[in-house]
Amino acid sequence: MKKLAELRAKLADLKKQALAMLDKADAAGGFDQAAQDAYDAKKAEIEATQADIAAAERLLEERRAMDALPAAGENTVHDTDPAKTHGFKDIAEFASCVRQASRPGGQPDARLFGAPTDVHIGGAPSGEGYEVPPEYRNSIFEVVNKLDEFGPLVDEEPTAKREVKGLADETTPWGATGVQARWRGEGTKMEPSKLVTEPRTTVLHELYAFVLATEELLEDAPRLASRITNKAGQAIAWKKNSAMVYGTGVGQPLGWMNSKALVTIPKESGQVADTIVPENIIKMFSRLLTVPGDAPFWITNSDCLPSLMTMTIGDRPIWMPPNGLVDAPGGFILGRPVKLSEHAKTVGDKGDIQLVSPKGYYAARRENGPKFAQSMHLYFDYAIEAFRWTFRFGGQPHLSNPVSPANGSATKSHFIAVENRA
């Protein structure tokens, strides 16, 4: 297929040169003998190239015909849905064909080029890559969705842009700025108020999985399918969710633990290192600002369970065991469900237990294709067999800072944590 593309490019260039000769002859009032000979030679080269293209096309048609009857031991075609699979049994067979095509002198499988709208080879000298058939795009990102801890819970919206621009209004009904309500005496003038807004931009950053596979692994099709679909999906989901919690905001989303919106509860005077005490929990609970209609929850590491499960206020336990609710496998603390997560730090570190109102976090994803997928290709070069998936995602807390209450001095936020207790 690469040779055919090169021949077609050569033909286009030859025709361009011949056209230039004709233009020159028109300007000169006709060909002289030398120009005529050069033009005849160029026409002969064009005809020879056209013959080479025809031969290459016939060879490609022969290969397509032979693909319908695979030799013993070769991959078979299970074309259950040609529009989605392009004739490949699974992503392992597709990857094996890409591996063969990526080798110097390798013969590309015709199925890599058989679907004109969904599969293509790029125009770079070595080719940009082969686009994954839609069926296998969905299967890979389905794994991401299943492992997505926080994505379905936050305030997320699709977009076709690489950044989302909006306005933020962080005023409160009891504050001195923003829209105000005032009492008015009869006959007195009304005092106007107005929204206080600031621009807010959320950039969609590119997240990718780039996998190098050995020749031995590529030849082991069942194992390859498992690795590509599960391992790549797990890695993408982990990195995306980790950024929502700990992202720096530089080249990645801004996580709530690194944002100015986070409220950090000081440790208690004399508190022993690597512990959680009832006062920590109570003070966290008192500082939570809940988004209307939201369902706040605790995030904690399983290392914290020995402390939480034995903690009491007076003679009443703070932690309650699960009661069959799937959404609270870690039980309940003060009536809020507990999610056990590897995104929480170990006991004693800031972030070992977090109290979150998830709708306080805004996220944007690319809307086209499978969820979170902007574009998805299986790439290669002539030195290694490499596989890469990419999509764009961005996010940041709605609040730029904690909110001051109507009474008292203790600010509140959608995200609460306890400082280090080392």
TrEMBL record:
Keywords: Coiled coil. The lineage of its organism: Bacteria, Pseudomonadati, Pseudomonadota, Alphaproteobacteria, Rhodobacterales. InterPro entries: Phage_capsid (IPR024455), Phage_capsid-like_C (IPR054612). This is Phage major capsid protein. Residues 129-404 form the Phage capsid-like C-terminal domain. The keyword Coiled coil applies. NCBIfam families: major_cap_HK97. It comes from Gemmobacter lutimaris. Residues 4-66 form a coiled coil. SUPFAM superfamilies: Major capsid protein gp5. Gene3D superfamilies: Major capsid protein gp5. It holds the Pfam family Phage_capsid. It is found in: Virion.
